[in-house]
Amino acid sequence: MVEKGALYVVGTPIGNLGDFSPRAQEVLGEVDFIAAEDTRVARKLLAHFGIHKPLLSYFEHNKLDRGAQILGRLQGGESCGLVSDAGMPAISDPGETLVAGCAQRGVPVYVVPGPTAAISALAVSGLPTGRFTFEGFLSMNKRGRREHLLAVAQEPRTLVFYEAPHKLRRTLSDFVKTFGGDRPVAIVRELTKIHEEVWRTTLQEAAARYREQEPRGEYVLVVGGAPASEGREGGFTLEEALEIAREQMDKGFSASDAAKEAARATGLRKGGIYRALTGPGGDGAS
Ligand code: SAM
């Protein structure tokens, strides 16, 4: 029995329809309406299970207006089921904003857990699972990607990334540049589907294979964390630090602040970066 005025965050399969839980079906059959990332995808899934409910689209580009509308209906006493295209809503999905809105307004939120690609991939990766960090998608923007990767380059926990097939090559190449080619990686593909595959290899080998082979399907990349012995000093060249510092200066930071940020990101000494940045005329601040 669903509660009036509550949001139900409902997990749906990431491939195999057999993973749609009996409770998910029951709850979606009882709510007043369903908010779906793509109503066509949801309608197909729900029809397969004989569930017929009013559907409302709720996706990245209408999430503010539509979210306000959904919140209004929830506060008016209706119950709503939230589903995304696949997996858990709010995990690299716009549901995050709606749940935050409910939390702010004191609207009750209940979860009906289902599969999520990140945790499923981590579980079969063969890499340490005791401590991990979920990194979602990398930005399309060059600077955003670089900053994201540099921020986790020394991270000792296992790293979990989502990636679209058309961006896989670029991402593997950026991983090799930032993390080095020897790191272990599990390339986890098409989970719970016919072509499900887990390839445990190194970043270098993965990048080489996908230079030859067209990436196909949905991917999760599970990357081993930085080895405990990997000192920051060994990880970056001065040239790389300078590149970061120059990016900071392009953003309007002073040479001193830019060198400080580059030192933080690379582990190299601020003084050396600053001197190289400002040339012989620099004051050598450190
Ligand atoms: N909310 C979803 C979840 O709980 O996993 C994730 C949504 S995100 C927009 C889509 C990304 O999840 C894909 O680009 C891919 O990286 C990953 N993904 C989804 N289904 C997958 C599957 N069956 N196998 C591997 N990765 C998958």
- Counted beta strands: 10
Q: What's the number of helices? A: 12
Helix content: 40-55%
User: What amount of the residues lies in strands?
Assistant: 15-25%
User: What would the average pLDDT be, to the nearest integer?
Assistant: 93
Morphology: globular
Q: Give the count of structural domains.
A: 3
Classify the secondary structure makeup into a structural class: alpha/beta
Query: Which CATH architecture of the largest domain would you pick?
Result: 3-Layer(aba) Sandwich
Uncertain runs with pLDDT below 50, 5 residues or more?
none
- Provide the CATH superfamily of the largest domain: Tetrapyrrole methylase, N-terminal domain
Main-sheet strand order equals 3-2-4-1-5
CATH top-level class of the largest domain: Alpha Beta
Provide structural commentary:
With 286 residues, the chain is an alpha/beta fold. It folds into three domains: 7-115, 3-Layer(aba) Sandwich (Cobalt-precorrin-4 Transmethylase, domain 1), CATH 3.40.1010; 118-223, Methyltransferase, Cobalt-precorrin-4 Transmethylase, Domain 2; 233-278. Helix content is 43%, strand content 16%. The chain has helices spanning 22-30, 39-48, 63-75, 95-105, 117-125, 142-152, 168-179, 203-212, 232-235, 238-250, 255-266, 270-278; strands at 7-10, 33-36, 55-57, 80-83, 109-112, 132-136, 158-163, 184-189, 197-202, 219-223. The strands form two sheets. Strands 3-2-4-1-5 form a five-stranded parallel beta sheet, sandwiched between helices. A five-stranded mixed beta sheet has the order 6-7-10-8-9. Helix 6 links the parallel strand 6 and strand 7. Helix 10 (238-250) crosses helix 12 (270-278). The protein binds S-adenosylmethionine.
